[in-house]
Every structure is written in structure tokens, then in C-alpha cells.
Amino acid sequence: MCIRDSLGVFTHFRVTGNSLLPNTTGLTIESIQNVAVVGNYATLLSVVLMLVLNFTIGEGNLPMYIAICSFLLMLVEDDMLCLGLSQEGFRYFPVLASLLAVYWGTMGHNIFEIWTRETPGLAISTLLYATPVLPSHISLLWLLYNGTKKGGIVMGSVIVFVVIDIVCILFTTNAVVQWMAIVGI
Description:
Elements: H1 2-16, H2 29-56, H3 62-69, H4 93-116, H5 120-130, H6 134-146, H7 155-171, H8 175-184
Helix pairs in contact: 2-3, 3-4, 4-5, 4-6, 4-8, 7-8
């Protein structure tokens, strides 16, 4: 009952534009920018820590990387750390770039482990299985970074990349390659 009443009072004051406390001053632009910078640093630090914990303790749970990198959507544009987030498509660039960096890093780690076990042929074949998804990742990053007005991707190439990624999902048993193909689609 008390919580409902307090939420009603809070909502009433916010809707009418009045402040809840007497003699309050508004936030300045500098203080809002400082909060944005602190929030961005906290977001980046928490994402990096969650990625490290997932890699070490979670044994590299591949779907969890997508959930963790999605937290980068909480970044806001500030004048110091995150510039250009309000541009067309660039909002999703940090998410996709970090996700692809983690997946390609995981693939590199797996190839290194296979190579050190005295099976370089298997390491090379694993790398060859991963190369068909590379063009779709590059084109997707290019599209998100530059936008559609500065050199968008031709629709025919997008269809070809999607078909290649679907073939990679169907015909490989490597889970990292499958998840990289899912991200490419």
C-alpha cells in the first residue's frame, strides 16, 4: 500500500513537471556528460569482466558471448569515449565488432591448441572451415561502420553471404564456426 502510494506521488510530480524536493537545481550539461562517461566506462569494464569470466569459468559458453556483448547497447554518446553512436547503424558496430573479435579469438585459441597437439593438418583444416564466414563478417562490419550512404553492400552479395553461412552451419561440426555463421546471417 505504501509503495503504491509513493509511486503515485512520484508519478504525479513527474507528469506535472514539478520536482519532488524543494529548492532543487537542474542538471548542467557538464554533469550529464560526466555521468555518461562514467556509465560508459562502467559498461565497458563490466562487459570485459563478464567476457573474461565466461572464457575462464564458463568454459567459453558460445551463446553467452552474444548475451554479454549485447550489454554494449547500453553505451551512450559522450564527447570522450563513445563518439558517433547516434549515426545510422553505428550503434550496433561496437556490439558486432566485440562479438566477432571474441569468436575469432576463440577460433584462434582453438587452432593454436590443435597445432600444439602435433596435428597441424587438423589446425589448417579448421582454419579453412572458418574462412568462408570471413567475407560476410567484413561486409557487415563495413556496412555498420560506414552506413548505407557511404558505400552500402549490394543485395546480391548479401544473399550469397547468407547462403555461404547457411552452408557453414549445415556442414561443419565446429561450434565456433557455426556461431560465427549465425552472427554473419
